[in-house]
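Re: zinc ion structure - here you go.
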Amino acid sequence: MKKVIINDEEISLSFETNVNLNNLAKLIKEFIKELGEDINRDGLKRTPVRVAKAWAYLTKGYFQTLDKVIGKGIFDATHDDMIIVKDIEFYSLCEHHLLPFFGKVHIGYIPDKKILGISKFGRIVDMYSRRLQIQERLTYQIAEAINTSVNPLGVAVVIDGVHLCMMMRGIEKQNARTVTSCMLGVFKENIKTREEFLNLINTSIKL
Ligand SMILES: [Zn+2]
C-alpha cells in the first residue's frame, strides 16, 4: 500500500494515482471557503483531505490501461454463441456538473476464436467509469475495448443510468432513466441478433 502525506497527515492509498493530493486538498479547502463555510469548524477540518482522497479514487481510471486491466484474461473460444454479462454496476461522474451518475451495464458479444475472462468485464467498466464521463462515451468506450481486445464477430453494450445532475438540480426529474447503446459488428448488421440480445438482457433470472 502506497503512503502519501497530505497536510502533514499520512494517508494510505490502495489504488494507483498520479494526482497530487496535497494540491487537490488545498483547492478543495478554497472551494469550501468560497461556498461561505467556515473551514475551521470541527466537521470540516479534515474534509479537504478526505475529499482529495475520495476524488483520486473516483478518477483512478485515468491511470489504468486496457492492457494492464486485461492482463492474461484472454482465452481460446470453443464456440461462437452469444455471451452476455449483465447487471454490472457502475459509478461515474458527469463531466458537466461533476455529480455522480450510476446504474447497470449490460454487455453481449459473439466470440471469434477468443473470449475474455468474465471478471474482466467489470474491470473494463470500472476503468472507464472512474473518470469524468458522459454516459454515451462510456458506452462506446466499453464496446470498443472489448472489440479491440478479442476482435469478436460483434459487441453490444447497453447502459441504464440515473444522473444526480438531473435529479437534484436542473429539471429535477427523480425517475428519469437514461438508456444508451452501442452495437458493433453482427449486432449492428443483424436485427435478429440484436433482438436476441435485447430480449436476454430484459429477462430477469430469479434465483
Ligand atoms: Zn450532468
